[in-house]
């Protein structure tokens, strides 16, 4: 771990970060032990990089609003089989969330993205600003020798705007369509259907915001992670889904669960779909008015 480049972090933060890294390695190694074939046991973590606000030194801990910056970690593996859908990362995320809820050795949320070295280097060669930023400003916490990042090839401003416009044309109309479906379901009293459509509209809006502003969005449905990543890109998104009351947190948790539970759980209930719909309308309005071009253009 590059202790010199982590010198800007308080001792408590460095200990937390070391603990989070230890959990990632433990779960990865445990998953390897359960595999029968040699090929399935050849997974390696080539790099682990801290990026985002804790790497830059501008993290936020606002106890009043309830907003806390995440530790953003990029795990680079040697093969696609060990990337995002690998079981180790789901177990690691469960452990990290459990540790966070207990409030012992971990008091800061952890956001983990996993990519192969080939994928990261392809992204750098294509000039994807999100990865260029990590390669330039990220702090390497672990790396194996002989696996360097490719030299970034920055996109021109025109290329960034062209790609951002393409993402707008794909994602924003689809989010708006899901929002209309949700409003219609609310009107007719189909609350579970409304909850699922509200989830889908929110997911699409967060993907849209991330893709337009950074030309990257993780392939996932979990709104908690999408929200954290979007808010780390632009802090003006934080008030859209407030965390300052138990009720506000409960509403977002219900929305987050809707992807599965609104369709399959007989016990799922959402009694405030209109309130959630209003928050989503704020996100939709912000996305349309503010998320117009990549933040890396300037």
TrEMBL record:
- What would you give as a GO molecular function for this chain, any one? nucleotidyltransferase activity
Domain named HEPN is located at: 172-298
Query: In terms of domain of life, where is this protein from?
Result: Bacteria
Q: Which InterPro entries does the protein's record reference?
A: HEPN_dom, NT_sf, Polymerase_NTP_transf_dom, Type_VII_TA_antitoxin
Pfam families in the cross-refs = HEPN (PF05168), NTP_transf_2 (PF01909)
Q: What is this protein called?
A: HEPN domain-containing protein
